[in-house]
Amino acid sequence: MPKVGRRTVEALLATNAASLRERSLVLVHGQYVPGAPTRFTATVQDEQGRVNLRVHVRDEASVLGVMSAWQDHKREAAPGDVLVVTTGVDDEQLGWDLRGRAVRRRTLTVENAEVVTQRFGATALDVRMYGQNWLLEALIDAEPADAGGWPRIGGLLTLDTALRALAVQRLGLGGTASGSSGAPAQQPTLDTDTLLAWSRTPAGPARFAELPAVERGELKKWLGESAGPAATVLLSLAEVELGHDAMALGVLAAALRDPAADPDTALAIGGLFGQVMPRRAALNAFTDAVEGTLTRWIAQARSSPSTRQEVFAVLDRADALAETSGLTDALAGSRFLPTGFAAQLRRTVAEARRSSVAGEAALAELSGHGLASLHQERVRVAEMAVRTARWLEQAEPSVPTVADGVRCHATDWGWVDRALTLLWAGDPGGDRATGQELLALYEQGRARRRRIDEQFAKRLAAWSAHATAAHPNGALVIENVLDTVVRPLTGVGAPLIVVLDGMSSAVATQFGEEVEREGWREILPRLPEGGRAGRLAAVSMLPSLTRVSRVSLLCGAPAQGGQSVETAGFAAFWKRRRQEAVLFHKGDVAGGAGHALAHELMSALASDAVVGVVLNTIDDALDNGQEGRGTEWKIGDITHLRELLAAARGYGRPVVLVADHGHVLERGSRSEGPVATDAAATSARWRTGVRAAEGEVMLQGPRVLVEGGGALVAPWREDIRYTGRKAGYHGGASLAEMTVPVLALVAAAEQMPKGWEGLPREKSAPGWWQAPQPGSEVAEGFLPVGENIPAPAAQPRSAQVLGGPPAQSTASTAPATSVPQPAVPETAVPQAPDSLGRQVVASEVYAAQKEYVRKVPEAKVVATVVDALVAAGGTMSPAALAAAISATGRVRRNIEGFVATVQRLLNVEGYAVLGFIEGGHAVKLDILLLREQFLPKPKEQA
Fold this sequence. Notes:
Elements: E1 3-4, H1 6-15, E2 25-29, E3 31-32, E4 39-46, E5 49-60, H2 63-76, E6 82-87, H3 91-94, H4 96-99, E7 108-109, H5 112-119, E8 124-125, H6 133-142, E9 156-157, H7 159-171, H8 192-199, H9 204-209, H10 213-227, H11 229-239, H12 246-253, H13 263-273, H14 280-301, H15 305-324, H16 338-354, H17 356-367, H18 376-392, H19 402-425, H20 432-464, H21 481-486, E10 496-500, H22 505-517, E11 521-525, E12 536-539, H23 546-555, H24 563-575, E13 581-584, H25 599-606, E14 610-615, H26 617-624, H27 641-650, E15 655-658, E16 664-665, E17 687-688, E18 696-699, E19 712-715, E20 728-729, H28 735-738, E21 739-746, E22 756-758, H29 761-764, H30 797-802, H31 836-841, H32 844-850, H33 859-871, E23 875-876, H34 878-886, H35 895-906, E24 914-917, E25 922-925, H36 927-934
Parallel strand pairs: 1-3, 2-6, 2-7, 5-6, 8-9, 10-14, 10-15, 13-14
Antiparallel strand pairs: 4-5, 11-21, 11-22, 12-21, 15-21, 16-20, 17-19, 18-19, 23-25, 24-25
């Protein structure tokens, strides 16, 4: 006997709506589904409009029961109520008297096809549906319970439409019912992405497993045909209650794509799949679908915490399954397993210790891991390990003079300090084995840096005895920064001087990168032809303390004291140069409610006065232990700095970011008290006295400012301190403390003073910092062990003071290998006859691409762009690229528009050969793809 549910009853009432105005009894041949509602309201449409009917359903198995139900209805029902009786009694047994009161005067037979047609609002059914009783019954049973019901078709209900609606409803994907306006709701896309997401829902797979076997089989068959074989595997797993683990199993099964997979691995993975034994082609399709979905989720997870949580729920479960099955080692090469990422990270650092080339290869594999974008901090540590390895493979540097030492620290060794800081902090993921490898590499780098500091300390002792602001012997001293660096900027606008108390060269490298990304351009005086530009740096006062160095910086002369001395000295310095000036300390910077900066400060910035601001965030963090282990700094970490930069940009001011001294960091000494005890010590990193112990140097001279005059003793080793433990220290004689980085910034090219030039990222960073790209030449400045670093040529005194090598120094008599120079590429890139750029513009593909571009740039200019990017390792800032183009005699003021034109030439068929990255602050060339597109290998060589 057919089953009759509420939806069937509603369909019968709708079909016979015209008769219900005269008769209130409906006899239906069938059995009412147990548990279905027996009283409900149904809406039908007749010739007079929509009518709401109160329906009472009774299921009766005998004539007497049917008669009793009718009598009860007549006695109790209100006018307009309808009684529906489902029964298996034949019409002959019911008699004419009862049948005469019923709709159509007979027992109605349930025709599932008619019911389905009516429930979908269709005009007809696909003929293939008439023979599929399971489908018709399932459609009647699965109709959404909300008022909308099935979506209204208004035409032929096709088999595919019916199956899609049934699958969506049975799987609980939603979107099948009609909206409040009567229009069909948006149908979800039934692809593997949707199904895999469904498998992660709490009840989704269980709903499918509870369906009748015939229905499960048919839905699985249809979804396999429409969504692909991966859907079949997924639903098979759901049938055996493995649906929630389906994605995790797909990650593990990827190992079976390798024909050489170990039989034990295949057996263990097969055991995890249980009764589900898909064919290899279907399994490969399933693993591909899982990895594709994970890749999309990972891309979304960068900005969505909930998606990130879901990604790791899948992958952590995969790791757990691998561990219980003994597959962890076999799956170490997995592109998605967290344990695979950790293993690859560990291997990258180990390979970097062996050689930078091996480290580069391992780093490329690590960067290709699916989780690399979600573990950027861990990848960054690996990058620092490889960079450190590159630096260690260079010739051992020496320090001929104090000027050379400070200059090289700002342009080279400060970047080493930045890398070593991250190595010392270890793996952010907490992997102990990786941490040990990082520590070993750190110790190698630190040992070399210690030797450099020892040489510098010896030069500093000899230099300090005679050096003065008037005769700095080729160095830029901190008391000359205002006159030498800041004063020339006043010709293009009153500058803003931001003193970042305690900023080291390592921290300055981070700020330099970030300000460029935010649209600022670092500048410096142009050096004579052949000179190499690099970040400006000055020598701190002695001791390298705030009350000595900062006061001397702001007064423009050697001095000591506090804020009142600084304020008066700053104003006096600029007054002597007929310029108004005002200085703000940290207590004067913050604004009131609703204002980031104080009204007085904003008024000063709006005036023509030179403005100085002192920010103590870094120094305070060192003193209070807030810097942490990673010690990475961003503009947003410095209180008020971002707001100050924005205000300076708005008022058209050039900006100078300058330190008063650097710092060294606490590197894990176990003692909370002093490491070196001396009763005369009044500071963490210097003491009075006339005798230096191991790791210390005695300093005296005109720039040594201590109470009562005389000499001081300061450690050059970073692990010596005379007071209690803090996050970091300053006052000593190491390069990290004595070097004062100076960053002169402009927001627009017209703000650049005459005789100055830009310092793009490619010139501020040493060559070993940049990763050599496949297909490019070795980055300039990266020299393997045994290669010579050429000694600098003599330059005029103006170049000496601002960062060029001194005209007369010990460098002139030192071996060629002893003078490390800033490793940065020249602005003009020499083009050999067979350079990659010239090969590209001479190719047939390039000639064809020119047909699609209006106003094609000259071939030599495009070739220069390609060769400049190749020489820089594939990535350049727009400013550096513009400088390279200028060397051809063609000035490109709108570099963004020019790059867009070159993109149309090089991006064949839409492939991203050339494009902007980092939000438009860098240009990237895919060198391998460029060769593949324009210079393909002959077929016999492919």
